[in-house]
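Following the same procedure, sequence and fold were stored together, as reproduced here.

>
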Amino acid sequence: MSNAEDGRVDDQPPDSEDPEAESLQALREEVEEKYDFDDFGPEDMAEMSLDEWEAVFDPETWITGEELLDRVERELKSRIAYREVFAVLERIERDGREQLLVYSDEGYAVVHPDGSIEGQGTVLRDVKPTVALCSMEEYEVDDPPEDVSLPRPVDVTQGSGEFGNLMLQVVAGAQMLVGAGLLIVWMLFPAVNSLFGTSLPTVSTIFAPLVAGVFLAIGFFLFLVVANARLSDRFRAEEYRNRLRAVGAEEGDRPDFLPFDEASSPRVERRGDDGDTTAEGKSEGA
């Protein structure tokens, strides 16, 4: 077991006469076996129960205050930039204190300097494990990339799989040409030879139309796959544009469902080496 320097409770032998201590020690050992703390991430944090968390982590070593907000802000910027989280991140001032506001079209979360969180929806679910991890001294927060903002709705394309669709169309066309050619050879060439005395190659086997039908069916199926893929890309792109419009990615306005307005929680201008937020309060980027 690790010591207090890595933020987890020391492995002290429990008092054999204290059932509560024995139960805590048993839970601590179970958590140690269940999770790999050398590679502990947000997914593990989301799976961990409150009892498991309290059993292995020492609250006296947690990071709080402005340092916690800075770490959470950097971590969330990275997750937003890599599209692990769909949200807009702002640093605001509310009730005389700086806080982090994270919101999307499906909810919001407000991170306080003491590590407490308020909010609702899927954003709250995504932010909770991030705050818990960033409060641990041993958790290393990487610097976010330069582009950490959501794209504008007009910049969203319908997908990048057009080359694959084109290849499928080529294969489908070849399949249908083979099938049609085989049918022509089987049906028309014998009649042409008998009428005009030509010696065109013919196929007399009864399996010829069956094989031709297989080729035609394969080609038709591949064309359907391409059409479905393009239609799905179009729907996904339009859905993503609608989500971006809902969070104000186009106009820069906050959603109406937030419990406070911009007058009571203005954006905080922060300029530093890590380029936290701009005067508009939103991350710089595309």
